[in-house]
Design a protein that fits this description.
CATH architecture of the largest domain: 3-Layer(aba) Sandwich
Number of helices: 12
Order of helices and strands: HHEHEHEHEHEHEHEHEEHHEH
Shape: globular
Strand content: 15-25%
Number of domains: 2
CATH superfamily of the largest domain: Bordetella uptake gene, domain 1
Distance between the termini: 68 Å
Radius of gyration: 24 Å
CATH class of the largest domain: Alpha Beta
Largest sheet: 10 strands, mixed
Helix content: 40-55%
């Protein structure tokens, strides 16, 4: 072995080292040129819902910013877990994005035995894109016009009031359970197969309350079909400025915003993450996206990847505590 090493001239040893940068050039060039083909944006819910609509707004603007088509694909199932798991397992090459809300990211991991991914370990949080408070709305026949009166009624008649949702683990269900927990009241949760059914039964007077999204709640407040009590955010919403927050109205510490955000598979190269974060932020704060979000009752919402990752971790822990304390179980 020593003889072999002595036989190697400096020139012989140097040649492979000199060749190394040229061997790396294709990989470096590929990273710098990204994207060179269309990017998939996975929406983990069926077409027509809030997640799908937000995904299409982002995809349109991001495609223009990147100079390559960003194609929305709906991969629905298991409350958003199927599409989310698909992205978590995708190649970290920058060509697969996820647009998901708080359900698949922070809720499902606590409701199901195995969703197929860890939202913190297997995904990179890029930036939130939109947020919206839910609002506590009720049928006008409920003999309570304020949150204070509603709480008094619930305490006088435990279990008499009903609160509908689109299913176990949905934002409306979490809203109801958090309300019961923090206000210390007994209200019966009624799970439907979709939020539309819950709202229809609320308008029809079959149930009393729903924690509704602003795009659903606001029009029905304006036409008098429903009564508004409060919003779940930290501040009042421009969509219904007369409604107090639940914290203002006496349910101390109540905050439950819904958000949607962009994610990529873990180990995606940092330059790609930074590019997508910057371009997505520009898209959602631009005029066209803001206008389309306003129609949906949504607010543009932007954070750095580091800030968004911290928000995701906080919500995973917060909703985990809520699920444990209330005993929520998946169907």
């Amino acid at each position: 072995m020593d003889a072999l090493l002595r036989s190697l001239s400096p020139r012989t040893v140097a040649m492979p080292l000199l060749a190394l940068p040229f061997l790396l050039l294709p990989a470096l060039a590929g990273a710098q040129a990204w994207p060179v083909k269309p990017v998939r944006l996975i929406a983990p819910f069926p077409p027509g819902g809030s997640s799908d609509l937000v995904a299409r707004v982002v995809a349109h603007g991001l495609g223009e910013a990147l100079g390559q088509p960003v194609i929305t694909e709906n991969r629905a199932g298991a409350g958003g877990s199927i599409g989310t798991a698909m992205v978590a397992k995708a190649a970290p090459d920058g060509y697969t994005l996820l647009l998901a809300g708080i359900g698949p990211i922070a809720t499902n991991v606590h409701l199901y035995a195995d969703v197929g991914y860890d939202p913190v370990r297997d995904l990179v949080a890029i930036t939130p894109v939109a947020s919206a408070p839910t609002m506590l709305v009720g049928h006008p026949s409920v003999p309570a016009k304020t949150v204070k009166e509603l709480l008094a009624l619930a305490r006088r008649k435990p279990g008499a009031l009903t609160c509908g949702s689109g299913g176990v683990g949905t934002p409306a269900h979490l809203g109801c359970e958090m309300f019961k927990l923090l206000a210390k009241v007994d209200i019966l949760h009624v799970a439907y197969k979709g939020s539309g059914q819950a709202i229809n039964d609320l308008i029809g007077g079959q149930i009393h309350l729903v924690f509704a999204s602003t795009p659903v709640g606001v029009p029905n407040l304006r036409n008098g079909k429903l009564r508004g009590y409060a919003v779940t955010s930290t501040s009042r919403t421009p969509q219904a400025p007369d409604l107090p927050t639940l914290d203002e109205a006496g349910v101390s510490g109540y905050v439950l915003d819904s958000w949607w955000g962009a994610f990529m598979p873990a180990r995606t190269p940092q330059p790609i993450i930074d590019r997508v974060a910057t371009d997505t932020a520009r898209v959602v704060t631009g005029g066209e996206a803001k206008e389309r979000f306003a129609v949906l009752g949504l607010d543009p919402y932007v954070l750095s990847p580091k800030e968004f990752a911290a928000l995701v971790r906080a919500d995973v822990n917060r909703i985990g505590r809520l699920v444990r304390e209330t005993g929520i179980k998946a169907d």
